[in-house]
Amino acid sequence: MKTVQITEIPKFDEVMKEQVETGNPVFAVFLSDIDPETKQYWCPDCVQADPYIKKALSNVENAILVECFVGPKSGYKNVPTHPYRVHPQVQLKAIPTIMFWNKDGPAKKLIIETIEQCETLDDFVKSCI
């Protein structure tokens, strides 16, 4: 699995287009930034979901995981104008969210807020490819 990180939100469209053009399965996951003090995601759901996401995609041949970081908590939480919330194709409602992406944009989406949803990631990934 190849991992690409987007830390600069304005580069999102360009990076996604580039990855989709490879013809490989592309998954975008929207995560909180990593807190510099704790060295973990500031979002506890992201901490919980991250290993499940990587495990589910590790079995997909030539998979590309695009990690899209939403920024610090103060710039995302309760900010309805956050760029990923208002992006016409993303329309982010919560983090973490994983999306299967093709040339037309997101084809499937899963918001991961519980351990039960983490445990369904294998099924989600299989349904995409």
Automatic annotation (TrEMBL):
Pfam families: TXD17-like_Trx. InterPro entries: Thioredoxin-like_sf (IPR036249), TXNDC17-like (IPR045108), TXNDC17_dom (IPR010357). It comes from the Eukaryota. Residues 10-121 form the Thioredoxin domain. GO terms for molecular function: protein-disulfide reductase [NAD(P)H] activity. Belongs to the thioredoxin family. This is Thioredoxin domain-containing protein. The lineage of its organism: Eukaryota, Fungi, Fungi incertae sedis, Chytridiomycota, Chytridiomycota incertae sedis.
